[in-house]
Each structure stands twice: as structure tokens, then as C-alpha cells.
Design a protein that fits this description.
Elements: H1 3-17, H2 49-57, H3 61-64, H4 77-85, H5 91-105, H6 109-119, H7 125-139, H8 143-148, H9 150-156, H10 162-176, H11 181-185, H12 189-197, H13 205-210, H14 212-221, H15 225-235, H16 242-253, H17 259-266, H18 276-292, H19 301-315, H20 319-332, E1 335-340, E2 352-356, E3 360-367, E4 376-378, H21 383-393, E5 411-414, E6 422-429, E7 435-440, E8 451-457, H22 460-465, H23 486-489, H24 493-496, H25 502-511, E9 519-520, E10 523-524, H26 534-537, H27 542-550, E11 562-567, E12 572-580, E13 584-588, E14 597-600, E15 604-609, H28 625-637
Parallel strand pairs: 1-3, 2-8
Antiparallel strand pairs: 3-6, 4-5, 4-7, 7-8, 9-10, 11-12, 11-15, 12-13, 13-14
Amino acid sequence: MNSKQKNAILSSIILTLMASVSVAQEHHHHNELQITKPEPPKIFLDKSPRVVAYQLKRLDNQRLLMVEREATDPKYIPVYQAILTRPGMTAQFRLEAISSLSKLLSKNTTQIVTESISNLETKTSEQIKTAEQLIELLIGQPKSELMEMRSIFEASSSSSNEYERVAAFAALCASEGGSSCFAEAKKSPAQLTSLLNAFQYSIDQDIKDALLEQIIAAFNHSTDLNVQIAAIKAMGYAQTQSQRRYEMLIQSFENNALRDASVNTLLTIPKQDRPEAANQKLAELLVKYAEETPAEERTSNAFTNAMQLADQSLSMLGSSKAKDFRKRLDAVTVRMIRIRTVEEEMRYDVPFFAVQAGKPIQIVLENHDLMPHNLVITRPGKLKPVAQSGLNAGPTGGASGLAYVPDSDDVLYATDMVASDAQVRLTFDAPSEPGEYPYVCTFPQHWYRMYGVMVVVEDLDQWLNDPQEPANPIGNNRSFVNSWTVQDLEAEVDAGVRGRTTSIGANLFNEASCRGCHRLAGEGGVIGPDLSKVVAKWKGNRKELLREIFEPSYRVDEAYQMQKILTVDGQTLTGIRISEDNDKVVLMTNPEATEPITILQDDIEVMAPSAISMMPKALLDQYTKDEIFEIIAFIESSQQP
């Protein structure tokens, strides 16, 4: 096959795939997704460490997890070490590896994680993500164990390995409250930078707030640019002294080298905590910055971020002042609205925004999720029919050729599917007629969570002075209740499910869209695992059932694990691997597909599994504790023998 033929085949595959995701809808003649599993690999663990490491490195994650292992025999140490440090492993298997290595090596779990971080390679984005996941596991270890290893962390804080330094400082802060972290970090700019970078991890908020003064001191007293930038970023993780931080960061905005970091941190400060006089000064600086930025640089992410901050600042000014500034901005750039997808939650981070009728606007859609998404703006009241018609449009799209975008007069503007870690810009003139125009992701079955509203108004600045939240476009009147965790409910779940009403739980199960993805009692979708025997699977352990709901990425059934493929021509594709051999990979690419597609191995640059579940987090954050117990009781009452 010549290169032209290969490219033609690959182009056809890419057109069909359209960076699509998820797993198959039920086939007309199948009730379950059929997956071909590879044969368990034969690994010779009695060879030299180098040979064993080579054998394990050649295995993908699926085959690595099929290797025999037992926490009572030291010969399996390399297997557990490979599992712990392999990109794409779920938390379930990393924790198994940590526990097993602790027994086999007679070391506490904190030592195991620390040593694993120090031995990691961090050359690729997947390896870096693994390092970040291990740092989170490290600071989640018992505080007593972290305290016992203080001397080791202090030694590691001067390592040449950046992530080992960050991990050491994160552990010191998490265990000691950060009392001595800065004294240790002041030995070098590299150490101080690593300490400041540690604040992005899940250290207790009280500790971050208590160390704000030292973060500010590091910024004020250091002449090292990396330290200053890291300090500005660290300020964004504090939640106290908002006004002081806001005024400080406005000063650093005027330094070109610090501007981008300052903008990003300024965006984290709640609008109600921004002093009026300082906000007006910032608005002037931002408008001036826009006027002085060359046209070719006005599509950069840095400029987009600055214009989001400008939009926020203008919304806080009086209508007359805002109009003057907006007129100057309109002369040099189109108004930008940045919308990001929220990783693992299948939603946009902007639930609504306003635009002035007839004025040009540019939406920047950034996809930070594993799944690809699009953004389609519809006529008022037409979200659901447009989204449902997107299924019929399919991956080749309607008349526009955009994937899952129907050929309909109800579609006003639309993007194509945006792959993971990519972005697209959609520029158009806002409708001339005021109203509430929904926007939605039309990839099959995403619409019930992924939507928002573009409010078109006659006078934007007047609306921004007194914004009114639009009606929910799908009629969902629920509001946020709590970011539920397993720990919130595990002590009460056994008593909580008693005496519940099956019909109430069934209605809530449907309302939460659970049945759209999961089969239960013979009904529902097959995008996710069948729940008809889930209670037996966990032997009645309701804590594990709660974990399935609240921590969907804790463990991912291999039948539903996403594969992320980078092709030789730079395309990023995602799907469920049905089978694989030396010549090809067979993927199921979307919830409504009736047949999988085939990608040639010669056209694949990299294929890596994702440790992220396709099931969104926070699905029940709009439900009360009692309602969650009703759902669990219904699931239990609907089990099959």
C-alpha cells in the first residue's frame, strides 16, 4: 500500500471518528458490548532486573494487569512497581500496588510513594500526569507517616528532580502545616519555586491560607523570575485577603514578564472582593493592553485570558464608564467569551453569558476533558430537538459537514467536535432579536448535562449592572446541594436506605439520567456497565456502591476504559478498544455506533489508556442526601439473581 492510499484510508477513518468517544449503544442483536481479550502474557520473572523491566515495559496496561502477582512473593515486586508508575492506571490499581509493595519491602506506604516519584520519568504529558497523581496520593497518606519521614523529605527537597522536590515540599506542608517549609526552601530559587508550585495540590485550605504571608514575602523579596511567577500562581490558591491580593496583582500586571500569571490569578478572585477603585484602574490597564497588542497576537491564549478579565472588570463599572471602555475595545478587538469544558464532569464552566444584539462576538471553546465536545447555538426553545437531531446527523454531520450538527434552521452557529486538550474559535454576529438562546454539546447523549444560555440584550452594559439568570433551557430547576463524597455518606448509608419507596427511587434514577447509560432490571442503555448485579459484585458493600457513584475514575472496568490515540499525522482520537493485533486496532467510537472502526497500527504514533472514567463526576451534586439514599435503595431493589 502506497502512502497516498494510506493517507486516504486514514482520512476516511478520521472523518468517521471525528475525535469521537464513548462506547457502543446496544446493537440490534446484542445486549452487551463484546470485547476480545488478549491472552495473558508470559513473563519470566526469574531473569535479571533489567530483563524483567524490559518485558514489563513492552506490555500495555491491559496486559500488564493480567500478569500474575501475589503480595507474598518478592519476585512480583517489579510487577507492582510497574503498575504503580504506569501512566493511565486507575487509583484502584495504584493503591493495590502501594499496599502490596509496602508488605513486600517492609516499608510504609509513604516511603513507597516517595521512592516511586523519585524514580519516575517526566518527559511526556502522560508521565507528568502520573507524577501529579502520585503527589496527590503522597499527601493523602497518614499525617503520622509523613511526619516520620520529615528528614527524607528535607533531603528530597534539594533533589535535581523537579517533581521530587515539589512532592517533598507538598508532603512537608501537608504534615507540618508548612511551619518550616519556607526556611528549607530559601536555600535556592529552584527549591523556593518548587515549594510555591506545591500549592496547586490538595493541601488543606487552612494551611494554604496560613502561608499566604510567606508567599507574598517570597514574591516581594525574590529577584528570580521563576520564583515570582510561582508566587503569583500560589496566591491564586489562597482564599483570604482577596482585596490585598487583587491590588498587588494589578501592580504586577504592568510587568510584561509577570502579566500572564497575574491575569490568571486575578481571574480567581471573587468579583465581590475586588475594590472599586482598583477595578477601575485594572480596566484602564486592560483596555490599554488591548490597544497596544499587535493584531497577530490577539488570538493567543494570554490575550484571551486578559480579555476575559477585562469583560469582568467592565461588568463591575457603572454603565456610562463601561460604555467608554467597551467602545475602545470594540475598535481593536471582537468581544471574546471563553468557555471551558470541566474535566470529568461533562459540562461547560460557563452556564450563561450575555451579548449585545447585532454585535460581533467570538466564543473560544477550550476542551479540557477526555471526551471530545462541540458547542451549538440554537434558537430559543430548540435545544432538545437540535440535540436529538444531532444523532441523525452522525459523525459526517448535516449540510454543514460538522459532526453531529443537524441541517436545521434551528441551528444558528456551531463548532466542529473539539478533541481533548484542543480549542476552537467561533466568530459570528449576535442575533438582532433579544432573547435566551441555548448552547449545547450535540454529541449523542451529552445534551442532558452539557448546555448553557447565550442571553442577547439590547444594552449589554445595562444588563451587566443588574444581570438576571436565564431560565434553565431543559427545565431543570435543581440547584447545587453539595459536592458529595463517599466519606459524607458512608456512615449513614446502611440506615439511610431502609424504608425507602421504590417508585421515588425509580423516578430519581431516571431524572438523574442514570438509565440513559446503565441497564437496570432489563431496561436502559449500555454506554456504562449493567447495574443489575452490582450489589452482588460488591457483596452488599454499600461504601463501594457509593464510590462507584462519587469516584467513577477510582476504578474503570476494562470493558469501558478509553484509549487515546495519536496518529502519525497529529490527529488525537479516542474510543473503546474492542480488539487489537499486530496489524490493527478496532475501536467502538460513539454511543450510537452499530459497528466499530479499524485503525491500522502503521497509522498510530501513540496509543495510551486513560485513567479517567467516561462517567462524569458530580452527577448527584444537585440531589439531597435522602434522594441519594432513595436511588441506592431502588438500585438494590432492582437486582437480578
